[in-house]
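Continuing the series of single-chain predictions for the mutant panel. This is the parent chain; the variants come on the following pages.
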Amino acid sequence: MQVSQKPTPLSPGRGVGGEAKKDIRKLKLEDLKAFFTEHGEKVFRAQQVYEWLWKKSVKDFDLMTNISLETRQLLKEHFTINHIKVDTMQRSTDGTIKNAVKLHDGLIVESVLIPTDDRITACVSSQVGCSLDCKFCATARLKRMRNLNPDEIYDQVVAIKQQADLFFGRPLTNIVFMGMGEPLLNYTNVISAIDKITSEEGLNISSKRITLSTVGIAKMIIKMADDSVKFNLAVSLHDAINETRSSIMPINDSNPLEELAEALKYWYKKTKRKVTYEYVVWDGINDSVAHVNALVKFCKIIPSKVNLIEYNPIDDGMFKQASEKAIQLYQRKLDENGIIARVRRSRGKDIDAACGQLANKT
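Parent structure:
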């Protein structure tokens, strides 16, 4: 009688011959097909594995139940799946959920599930930390460690999609790139992640449900327009006077409002889609009539709308929420000029999950 031998155990991070295992999700479908052909396997296995990885979002080869044990062992010998893990989860009194997400190398980012009556939104991160220095943002106080890979961005969406079903019994409806980091400084990986999120082979979420928020990097807005992206664009504006904007957002020194305006004109010419301006009104910084008038003028450059955002303190006294009177002044002036403006009340403030508060305090 022939006795089968168990395969020699491999180091979790090492494959055949002792070399580092490759993350299988870095492979394209064509690469998987080539791998299976090289190892004498039927090529259709590649499509099966690809669906397990992206459509079904499995984190373990042993969960690929329509793949033989021998083939799963082959995959484990050569590859790993560097999936994220929700390290800690906090729930706000308003239903908001904040996740501290541990990456395969031990670094942490944060993502947020934001529930409202008519939608559930995933707010995801694109970088570990941030290289910009916006004075009002807690994330800006963190050193930028690295860009997130496409699968790490994708996994954040999957985790929130599962939480939406588990805790609310409702589907994930929207995705915003408004978490940690500047998405346009991780452009290739963000676009790759969005491609997977919107693909029928992935989560099949409509591009119209996705919004990318940027501080306003002009050349990258032009590139997005040239690349014919289908998702929505939001710009963290916060002021339409160069001197004030530079004092709170140093990126404005290298991307002044004049350059941003030209990039946005190009965006609208190519895409015919209006932009959303995110705008926080602070006491004594941008709450005067001059700042209101400057915003109205900037909004007329291309069709746009404005989210007037409630300020969320980050433990210093430089920035304070403007008075309700100042907010109403903005609303009235924008409305008089035919510009849609909504006051966006922050969610998850009690767990530091609101706009500008993501700082890995865990």
